[in-house]
Amino acid sequence: MLRHEFQPGRLVAGAFLTVAGVLYVGDAADAWETPWFAVIPLVVGGLFLAGAVGLLARMARRHRTPPRPETHT
Question: What's the predicted TM-score (pTM) here?
């Protein structure tokens, strides 16, 4: 199996969207009552947080990797 780089922004976005999905499934199964407008701030806030985490991860990854040597041909 090929290894891929860890992307924490996608992890955060997936977690928030999973929570939103669980809220709607619970509402559809009559386990609880979820107002229709409750999920919108959850999804939007999760996407903004995912963007911030992704930006921080990119900055940390760029800061940590050594610069490439320049080749002149």
Answer: 0.78
